[in-house]
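To close the chapter, one final illustration. This time we ask the reader to focus less on the individual chains and more on the assembly as a whole: which components sit near each other, and how the overall shape emerges from the parts.
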Amino acid sequence: MKSISLYEDKNSVINMLAPMTKVIYIIAALIVPFLLGSNTISVVFIGISILVLIIGKVLKRVVPIIGFSSIIVLSVIIIQGLFRAGNVTPLFSIGPAVFYKEGLLFALDIGINILNILLSFSVLVLTTKPSDLIEGFVRIGLSPRLGYVLISVFQIIPQMTETMVTITDAQRSRGMETEGNLITRIKAFFPLISPVVMSSLVNTKERAIALEVRGFNSKQKKTFLNEEHKTMADIVIKIILVFAIVASIVGRVIIWLK
Amino acid sequence: MAKIVVEHLKYKYPLTDKLALNDISFTIEPGEFIGIVGKNNSGKSTLCQALVGLVPAFYKGAYGGKVYIDHVEVAKSDISEMCKKVGIVFQNPFNQVTGSKISVYEEIGFGLENMGISRTEMIERIDEAMELLDISKYKDRNPFDLSGGQMQRMAIASIIAMRPEVIILDEPTSQLDPQGSEEVFQAVQALSKKGISIIMVEHKIEKIAQYSDKVMLLNDGKLIDFDTPQKIFSMDNILEYGIAPPAFTQICRGLGIYNKESGLYPVTLEEAQNIFFSKGIGGRSNE
Amino acid sequence: MSKIEIKNVSFSYIKNELILDNINLVIDERSTAIVGQNGAGKTTFVKLLKGLLKPNQGDILLNDQSIKAMTVAKLSKHIGMVFQNPNDQIFKNKVIDEVMFGPLNIGMTQADATKNSKKALEMVGLSGKLDNNPYDLGLSERKLITIASVLAMDTEVVIFDEPTIAQDLAGRELIKSIIRKLRSEGKIVLTIIHDMDFVAETFERTIVFAKGSVILDSNTRDVFSKGEILKKAYLEQPSVTKLCRALGYEETFLTVNEFIEFRKNSHMIDLFRAFTTKEDFFYDGAFIAKIKYQCFQLKSDKETYKNEVVKSNRKLCVINCNGYVDNEIAETLTVYLMMNVTVKESIQPEIVEDTGTLWRDFSKEEIADFSHLTGDTNSIHLTENPVVQGMFILKELCDTTKTNEIEVKYTHPIYGCNPVYIKREGNLIKGFSNGILCFQATAL
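The assembled structure is written out below.
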């Protein structure tokens, strides 16, 4: 049983970077364009993200995500292009439908933002081990217990699905029908849900005890088996990104003061 | 070296009437291999939990008496502290996998991270534990990808890495196939040879007879007897306590064959074989 | 009689990774244990029988009907399976409701379901807990509930998946008795199990799986005799088998009692032979009036025998036959032999109404075997040689009473192959045949 995550180890430079670096990147990618109110900067970040994804050899995995979001973006384009209040300048028309410039520009705005968000998150999610990410947060102060809860979800859910299969088998072999009309399927609900819940509770209790006897609730400050990701590149990138964020805050203030 | 002293231990689970442990007292010397036997609900698991401190800390309930491990009173200590002295392995291998680590190597290090051990020492301890349990070849595997026997050995390694002087195993082979069982018994024997005290609850009576220095018989929460396997399994009324002696012992008893000096019956295959040969029964040596 | 045929069945979850490779089996009415290492294909095999998986190749026939097309739910009317983990199944909050779930699903009426469920719960010893919440009961009791849930469905086939895990002695004996009862009702019982001792004590047939194939399939004794093959499959022989092999016996012993009986019998027979062959007592008119056997220590093939005539006149001869080990008496046979006495058949023997329970219905073969063993090759009827009869009854009584000291008085011969009944009165055992008191035995 493998854990559920989108991560794949491509052994690239990007994989070597600390998770925190990528988190800061996301913050930068979202805040800087927002504060400076510029779509161009968003596009710049989109470009950076795509570049990073190529270096990380995970660009292909992004395609389905983009594909999915483009459906949303397309609907936004259609609705805003046609019906947005304040649409005065027609740009082109398809049959009887007239697309207006204002609406289309607005939709483009939204599209760029969505793309930026998706790509910057993809940089994090596709190149980082979930356990490393959570460990990164724990290193900077996240409660280790919360960290454990978050990370164990990835591993334990596939286990639960295996249990669900066994439970379904057990109930089916007592004559419970699972195939058929809606009523049949609804009737199958309780004999399946109850053992799932109960066995999860039992397993969770046993697991909690196992954790307990391995010092999980110790007040001691925890150490880390893994080496911390701390390359020159991390430090440099972090400095650049933080600088960019600070610069954008300053820039915002200046604009505001004007 | 950690000596275990239990004095008048009594315990009742919350919302129950019956005493799960009823005035139990015994001493276990360092380095001993102790087997605990008794019918279901005789208090074996509860005793194990009391030795680590889960009773009363985790299970609450009414607790009386004292349990000392290496002169430290268990009930008054934090489990996180006790786990450095005494470790425990349970029946279900799956539920002992933390689920937060993606390799066997990291999984074994989980307890060490909690203890705040330095990184270099962690690596040393994990390597040592994997070597002892013969699972070094699985170090990069996902913990959930192991067989039952391998998973139990990983659980034992995770506990061993914390370097306790006492390890308790509560029916560790119940859910394993014969090969997995054998792997666990051999691993535990290796630990025992290193001087770690072992306390094992098992239904596989022949194995308990084979590996234990002493056997503890529990019934209804009471300690009935605590003595060598030969003594315990030669008890005339042992069936009353819901336990059948090893098959070898039963055969010898049925044929009236026993050790003339001690007046006790053999409990292992080797012992039985030797006694039979000395009486002139059977003649060919084993293959 | 029900029958399951597995014909050329192969199965794999992923292409090119064959879990089961061309399995051919016929499951008949013998109770069957399925053993093998984890990963050998046992669970997959059983799931195929239950219809939870469909074979990639081959077919499975239940009573000559293919089950490939049947849904699991429909098949569950005929084949029931007790899963390993009760937590994967229990969902009602009353034991009786949980057990009735299966029967109601397969179409039993409320009344029938209730009746069967109560009967099933009685079989597992939970009659007093019908209205309890299953989760208030311990794990071993929850396992019994899942067993009852399947028994209540009254299927022709019952499959158990590791029933003895975490069970103590009482639990294992209960499961043994359930399996025996199902077998006696004519149901097919199949069990996946790791406990070889339990297999040896309980199952008539054992099938060994290894790497997706069946490597051994025979009656249990035969399978456990093949130590080398079992070792390759990472399996061990039962403890008793191992000990007896280590002692040099060629036969495969399965249970403790079997071996004990064997040792005891072989000794008694040697003693009898010492008695019958040392002196020639097989002449007309001799019969045993009383015979006494004492066993002090059963030991040694180094036993030597010596006969001692204690008293001898025309009508009565008393002989002590002693077996010595290291100059100590290990066992003694004292025979009171009546000779040259005419049996007056005209004496009206007392015909008793209540002759107790049926004890033995001796077959000619049994008697012939015994006679042969003790040195008389002619008798096949109990009546033909009263001396042989006297010893045979003694031996059978020893087996029945499992005692080390017994005395038998014979008052009337047992004729032909008539069945023998016994009635116990305290220490006394009275034996009757045809309503007539034939012997009285006192076991000490």
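Chain C has a mean pLDDT of 86. Residues 4-246 of chain C form a domain with the Rossmann fold fold (CATH 3.40.50.300). With these observations in hand, you are ready for the problems at the end of the chapter.
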